[in-house]
Amino acid sequence: MLEHELAERAKRRIERHRTESHFDPTKTLAAFDFSAVPMVSKAHVMALASGDSWLEKGANVLIFGPPGGGKSHLGSAIGHALIDAGYRVLFTRTSEIVQKLQAARQSLQLPAALTKLDRFDLIVLDDLSYASKDQAETSVLFELIAERYERRSLLITANQPLSGWDHVFPDPGMTIAAIDRHVHHSTILEMNVESYRRRTASDKQSGRRRQSSRPTGQDGCRWTGRPA
Ligand code: ADP
Ligand code: MG
Known about the structure:
By secondary structure, the chain is an alpha/beta fold. The chain has one domain: 3-Layer(aba) Sandwich (Rossmann fold), CATH 3.40.50. Helices cover about 45% and strands about 10% of the residues. Strands 2-3-4-1-5 form a five-stranded parallel β-sheet. Strand 3, helix 7 (about 135-150) and strand 4 form a beta-alpha-beta unit. Helix 5 crosses helix 6 (about 110-115). It is globular, with a radius of gyration of 18 Å. Adenosine-5'-diphosphate binds near residues 32 and 70.
């Protein structure tokens, strides 16, 4: 009976963690087609998804690639697996958390808000490239990165490789400091593929086999795939 009760409690705890994480329940590893991203090692992703030592060390993950390539899906999928392994994870669009932190700063609650985020072993900052370019807002993003440095992990998805981050942080010094802190102890996954949706749609149309990799999107979006 006691064992059953303990197992029930652990299950309820994991379910609570999943609810607070805000992950899309459908974006799991089981639903992720690794053959669509041959440059990403499944074994490597599975190791990240088990937590290993990277979360204990406060190391980071960066996922780069053009829109539609599966960055958000893979970030969610790793997060779901970590929740299953007992970790606490938060998924948020970068613009959303930046707005919240900015509001906290205006009411002099920024340190308290950052401390509250400490309970998460991992925060997934989705779509860094779309963060606001307003100086005050991006400086809270910088503070979040600096606050967690070497203590708590971040997983960042971005359309732009690091060389494009000067569009995210208005001040070049801040860009360099953010990159430096983030990239130190980090794993970089490059998903240099054409949009998954567009590929599956055109596969259906033409009936041809899915092409697994293509360096440049059809919409002309330039993608070097090389971080600075
Ligand atoms: P990104 O964040 O890179 O713009 P998304 O993760 O939002 O791309 O992917 C776009 C859509 O395609 C989503 O519905 C996602 O679930 C799906 N998708 C992308 N890559 C894969 C994949 N390798 N396997 C299964 N679904 C994928
Ligand atoms: Mg995305």
